[in-house]
Design goal:
- By secondary structure, the chain is mostly helical.
- About 65% of the residues lie in helices and about 5% in strands.
- It has a domain of about 110 residues.
- It starts with a helix and ends with a helix.
């Protein structure tokens, strides 16, 4: 990595409000193509900025998220190919990794007085971890992302009971019946087979999309309920604090009144 790349990384580490001024100052200090490159850098919005901070300041959390996404993608592909795979376990581990990353992003953002949306953070972390390839410039994200879903698994043909192997010439996967040997002269699948496989893939994608949508809706409902509980608790605490303050003021007034009465009585008895 070049010295200029190091300086660019430093820009994306900065608090969000400092990015533009620091970028412009760096561009003025350079000339030619380097200055043009710096001036062309986009300022992140708050969500990608928070995601970047997890990469820069909580690398273990970020790496754990990426590894869990890689594992989930692998088991999903294995399941589509007809191989045994623990999709549920990998999905749960990935959800936990996303939740940890979101919590870390929120913590880092709060320290910088930024407030990214939790749902947008979760979607961006999910998309980033399921792309199948690490970003070329991690830590420099400028826009929030949306999960790709099963589009990321295109080209993988669901199995119909056999096992699969890679066709090195086409880069796609072929289904081979158990016990069957494919020879160089064996017939390829017919267009009807392709259509059946395509429909199976579409059905699997629809089921997975429905499951993800359902889980997101449940999560959003749980977050909303928790927010409502928190609001009620804050309101109750505030009312209790006001009640205590009034009672405390009454106590101080009562003590002062008693003190005044005692002093008044003492003076009267000596006059």
């Amino acid at each position: 990595m070049s010295a200029l790349d190091d300086k660019i990384d430093d820009l994306y580490r900065l608090p969000l409000g400092e990015f533009t001024a620091a970028r412009n100052a760096l561009a003025k200090a350079l000339s030619g193509d380097e200055a043009k490159r710096i001036r062309a850098l986009e300022k992140p919005t708050v969500v990608p900025w928070a995601v970047n901070q997890v990469y820069w300041r909580a690398r273990s959390t970020f790496d754990r998220l990426m590894k869990s996404g890689e594992k989930l993608r692998a088991v999903q592909i294995a399941a589509l190919e007809g191989r045994e795979a623990d999709v549920r376990g990998a999905s749960e581990a990935h959800r936990r990794a996303i939740a940890d990353a979101v919590a870390e992003a929120e913590r880092l953002s709060a320290a910088a007085a930024a407030k990214p949306g939790a749902d947008a953070l979760a979607r961006t972390f999910e998309s980033l971890s399921l792309t199948g390839a690490a970003p070329k410039t991690p830590g420099r994200l400028t826009e929030a992302l949306q999960p790709a879903g099963f589009e990321a698994l295109l080209g993988v043909t669901p199995s119909d009971g056999g096992h699969t192997k890679a066709d090195k010439r086409s880069g796609t996967l072929e289904v081979v019946k158990s016990g069957e040997r494919r020879t160089p002269n064996a017939e390829r699948r017919t267009p009807n087979d392709e259509r059946k496989a395509s429909r199976a893939a579409a059905l699997a994608a629809e089921k997975e999309a429905a499951r993800v949508a359902r889980e997101k809706a449940e999560h959003a409902a749980a977050v909303k309920a928790a927010e409502a509980d928190l609001a009620r608790a804050v309101d109750t605490e505030q009312k209790a604090r006001e009640t205590w303050e009034r009672a405390h003021d009454d106590l101080l007034a009562a003590r002062q009144a008693l003190t005044d009465l005692r002093r008044s009585r003492f003076k009267t008895s000596h006059d």
